[in-house]
Amino acid sequence: MKMRHFLQVTACLVVVIVAAVPGGSQVGALTAQHQIEMAIWRPGDGSWNVLLNNNSEPDQPGLHAQVGQEGDIPVPGDYDGDGEDEFAVWRPDDNAFYISLENLSWDGAPVRVVDFPKYGGDLTPVSADYDGDGADEPAVWDATDGSWHVALDGDTEPGMTALSAQVGQKGDVPVPGDYDGDGMDEFAVWRPAETGFYVALDNTDWEDSAVLSAWIGEATDIPVPGDYDGDGIDELAVWRPKTGRWFVLLENQSGDDWPVLFAQVGQLGDIPIPGDYDGDGYDDMAVWRPADQTFYVSLGNTDWGLSPTMIVEWGWGDGDIPVPGNYDAD
Predict the structure, then answer these.
(1) Edge-to-edge strand order for the sheet containing 111-115?
(2) DSSP sequence for 248-266
(3) What is the C-alpha to C-alpha distance for residues 172 and 170, in angstroms, rounded to an integer?
(4) Residue among 268, 206, 13, 253 nearest 126 (CA)
């Protein structure tokens, strides 16, 4: 899945982690097709702060805007298909997406509001490119029944084209991504109770779809799928909070016996945020450390210190949430 898609999922996880240390909520990874920028979102004032060169030196260019408010969940993505991620938030109070189409402050930019009023109150934002058109569709996953609801036209007006399916169950973590390399993100969940991934390759109800099921990790692990080998397909993967260890399945096959990539990047209290930070086509293992408000990126996907690394301090206060993305279409 594209890096921005992982962020849809990760944003919810981050909210949970910031409040209570990693326990599991929506995470995912996104295969970045361009270099992503380090960025944070501040819940207290809804401000976005982007490092355009992934460098925190005082003279480096940045992008700043106010989009959202306290209680929102940041969900950046390319909602208009222009190749540039937009600032966006999901507002649980009214079950709606608020998207700034020009990455300007809320009062100075064209906006799109996409709401899902008829669904319940236990919704998780899972925007991704489910139809392969190059734009992210606003979407939600309902934890009460495992149902997915996608606004294919980018709005929820009467008569809109919608995609709905049942994949997953209560207690699962939604992790959409392109697991077969067809250019479309698939409905998928991580089930902590079984330490397994379940992927509906046809984006239809579970019983009607070709499926991929794989088992890896422990119940307390955090799902972090992404394209770690640069083949254009998202690999199933987990990150272990207590040790900072990454486990990546290099072949998406059903079962529990495949080649695995291991590496130690991060520590207890960190937030995993994989993505392509150097633009080489591979997702890099990376974490955000709230304790020192710093990004730690392993550019070679090996144990920390065995390959080139990137360490960038970026943040100003408690509660900041990492929201890396491709905000300048580079």
Answers:
(1) 73-74, 87-91, 96-100, 111-115
(2) EESS--SBS-S-EEEEE--
(3) 6
(4) 13
Element (H, E) at 20: helix 3-20
pLDDT per residue as tens digits for the range 65-101: 999 999 999 999 999 999 999 999 999 998 999 999 8
> Which burial class, exposed, middle or buried, applies to 255 when counting CB atoms under 10 A from its CB (0-12, 13-18, 19+)?
exposed
**Facing residues of 111 across strands?**
100
For residues 11, 14, 15, 16, the Cα torsion angle rounded to the nearest 10 degrees is 130
From the CB of residue 259, how many other CB atoms can be counted at a distance below 10 Å? 8
Alpha carbons within 13 A on the beta-carbon side of 192: 19
Six token digits for residue 190: 């991580």
CB-based contacts of 101, cutoff 8 Å, min separation 6: 79, 80, 86, 109, 110, 111, 112
| Cα 294 to the center of its chain, rounded Å | 18
CB atoms within 10 A of CB 98: 22
Q: Tokens 């019983």 identify what position?
A: 207
pLDDT, tens digit, for every residue of 51-65?
987 665 545 667 889
The reported pTM is: 0.86
Helix (H, G, I), strand (E, B) or coil at 54: coil
- CA–CA separation, 211 and 168 (whole Å): 12
Within 13 Å and on the Cβ side, how many CA atoms surround 113?
Answer: 8
> What's the full length of the chain, in residues?
330
